[in-house]
Amino acid sequence: MGLKNRIVASSFLSVCVMALPAQAATFEVPRSFEIMYVDLEGARQFGNDFKVEVDEGQHQIVVRFNKLLHSGGDTQAYQSEPIVLDLQFEKNDYFTVKAPYISTQKQAEAYSKAPTFTLFDDRSGKEVDYQHQILPVKSGFQNTRDYVTEIERFTAKNQPIMDDAPVLAPVILTQNVALEMMQFWYNRSDDATRKEMRIWVTDDLYKPTVSNIQLEMSQFWFNKADREAKKAFQAWLVE
Q1: Alpha carbon of 164 to those of 83, 152, 160, 188: distances in Å?
Q2: Is the pTM of this model over 0.70?
Q3: With bands split at pLDDT 50, 70 and 90, how would you rate the model's confidence at 142?
């Protein structure tokens, strides 16, 4: 091959390599969720409401439970507060959110207050560890909220994440909402609150020495639970 032909071939190969799409990672949610922001930019700039592609590296993705249920001629919307995920992606990762199927208004109302889910890597079939924060509930007309500003302030206030913070065990929902919610709020509690909760569930007369939303919600769902769910929760605590 002559020098001229080698130069042409080399140039053509370079153009082809440059034209190849960059290897990206994918993040997908079920249709009962929506992707609100990717690195604080509207998700629609990256894909559709349910799947986005991102470059490898660290990304902040904000999702929320968003379910419409029909009853007779009425349609009721159920939304959770935004959930901020900090995720590390490698090339060609395909992360999928796995959430429970919600079919009733009772389930949707309970789940929108305390959404839980697991994250899987479709390539390996393994569960993915992740850090998340849920934006505090805010009263008023939700459509006027500046979520980007709220998220910036909220995540800045909660940084850095301390190394000794309690690890959140994944919670997989079944059909017993009360049991699922007790496990969820227990997993979100610190060590002191967990200790108080373990004592309280075995002694109705015990007065906890801590006061926080995690304990209050655990007590709320324990009181709503049936006998079997209470027994299952107590057994779960000592596993």
Answers
A1: 22, 24, 11, 14
A2: no
A3: low
